[in-house]
Design brief:
There is one protein chain. The chain is mainly alpha-helical. It is about 50% helix and about 10% strand. Helix 1 packs across helix 2, helix 2 crosses helix 4 and helix 6 packs across helix 8. The longest helix is centred in the N-terminal third of the chain and has 27 residues. The N terminus is likely disordered.
Length: about 200
């Protein structure tokens, strides 16, 4: 059975004189409601300084899960012809500039680029792909001592956190990435991390 959410636009497009009046009216009303809700969602995402979750949007706009999904589909379709796209991260939905314009932004606003050192990126990669890990685990993988300054930068950005301890001598803290890390890299979950070219290089005994 087809999902009415996914076929809403098709139903509207194929509605004609042969469609019963009550059915045609119901389809048109549902689409009009979804269209209006999609614009309300767009307004809220523009105005919000942080991503908004499904629960946030349903609460603010007093709508059901089905209505939310219909509205999001319509919003995505409308944004397809825009410079913006609807992104979803671990913290919720947000509007963001399409990747195809990133080079232009880099050229005109180079100050907006954040320079991350190779050592920081390597440390963050080990944590992201092999978490939970200890500082010693990271040093084992990279073959060099982990700078306290690098870890402090990652903590200050809110990209990593300590959660639990490894059951070994000294009970070192276990490091994990945070939802803020996913947000910063436009990911909704760790499953969206790109494949690692050389996974064996991150093997932790």
């Amino acid at each position: 059975m087809e999902n009415p959410i996914n076929t809403l636009s098709l139903d509207v497009a194929t509605t004609d004189a042969s469609t019963p009046d009550d059915e045609r009216q119901a389809i048109l009303e549902a689409h009009a409601t979804a269209e209006a809700l999609s614009r309300y969602i767009e307004v809220l995402l523009h105005a919000s300084e942080t991503p908004l979750t499904d629960q946030d949007l349903k609460k603010h706009l007093a709508m059901s899960s089905d209505e939310l999904q219909m509205a999001l589909i319509i919003l995505k379709e409308r944004l397809s012809g825009s410079v913006l796209t609807l992104g979803k991260t671990a913290s919720g939905y947000r509007l963001q500039i399409k990747d195809s314009y990133s080079r232009l932004i880099q050229q005109i606003f180079p100050e907006r680029l954040e320079s991350l050192s190779q050592a920081l990126l390597e440390t963050l990669s080990v944590i992201a792909y092999k978490q939970p890990v200890t500082r010693g685990d990271i040093e084992q993988v990279r073959g060099v001592t982990v700078s306290s300054n690098i870890l402090r930068q990652l903590f200050d950005k809110g990209w990593i956190m300590e959660k639990g301890h490894k059951d070994t001598l000294g009970r070192p803290a276990l490091l994990h990435t945070t939802p803020a890390f996913l947000d910063a890299f436009g990911l909704s979950s760790l499953d969206e991390l790109p494949p690692l070219p050389d996974l064996q290089s991150l093997k932790v005994e």
